[in-house]
Design goal:
alpha+beta, Arc Repressor Mutant, subunit A, three-stranded antiparallel beta sheet, 11 helices, Homeodomain-like_sf, DNA-binding transcription factor activity, transcription, Helix-turn-helix transcriptional regulator
């Protein structure tokens, strides 16, 4: 799997995967690939969260030394299954939904830790297969995401063309390099805005924006309010 999809079923539904249909009872969490879909009378009966390898990098970095190592255990025979079903209480489903509304990355961390707690060997191996094989590229971007570089500069640093870089990003992460970098810089900008007294112009520079206006315009589109107004709401 290049990416995975978490689907939480509040009510019974039908999972469509690999040309087949599978009835999933209520109160279940399905872990599957990005091509799977759900047939249901209403979207309110399930929650679906698509997760790319770069979304799991922080968790992988935190847990790499603690996870079950592949040289100690054989790869579970069902690691290649197109979907896996785990129990999910109403509390788990509600907590995930609340976290999705607050911060998508928090919901992914929560739900993956839940899976690791239930089946540590399987989900350690799955995390390694999704993130570990992409680690060099992921860590390069994670380390350099706040540098004031253009996408072409990142491509030059990696020794590949800009077109190739964007192809890799779409293939592995489901978005362009520019889109991911902008999202990361805006999240960091929001964090600095709420936790420091730095001027907005200084925050823009800290987060890799070439100028204050670009940061403010992008911030407004992302968070539906300008940086100074968001800061005033927290005072």
């Amino acid at each position: 799997m290049k990416s995975i999809k978490f689907i939480l079923f509040r009510q019974e539904g039908v999972l469509r995967s690999e040309g087949g249909c599978h009835t999933i009872p209520a109160g279940k969490l399905v872990i599957t690939d990005e091509k799977a879909s759900v047939s249901s009378f209403s979207q309110s009966t399930f929650i679906s969260i698509l997760c790319h390898s770069i979304d799991l990098l922080p968790l992988y970095q935190d847990l790499a030394s603690k996870m079950v190592q592949s040289n100690k255990f054989r790869l579970p025979p069902n690691i290649s299954e197109r979907y896996k079903v785990l129990p999910a209480s109403n509390d788990i489903i509600c907590a995930t939904e609340q976290l999705v509304d607050i911060e998508r990355s928090a919901s992914l961390r929560f739900i993956y830790l839940y899976c690791l707690g239930l089946e540590p060997i399987y989900f350690s191996q799955l995390l390694e297969s999704i993130v570990g094989t992409n680690n060099e590229l992921l860590e390069f971007f994670d380390k350099n995401r706040l540098n004031p570089w253009t996408v072409s500069r990142y491509a030059d640093e990696l020794g590949i063309s800009t077109r190739k870089l964007n192809f890799l990003f779409y293939e592995k992460f489901g978005m362009s390099a520019k889109q991911w970098l902008l999202d990361q810089r805006l999240k960091k900008g929001c964090e600095l805005l709420l936790s420091t007294r730095l001027r907005v112009a200084d925050i823009a520079m800290e987060c890799g924006f070439s100028n204050h206006a670009h940061f403010s315009d992008s911030f407004r589109r992302r968070f539906q309010q300008c940086p100074s107004h968001m800061r005033s709401l927290m005072e």
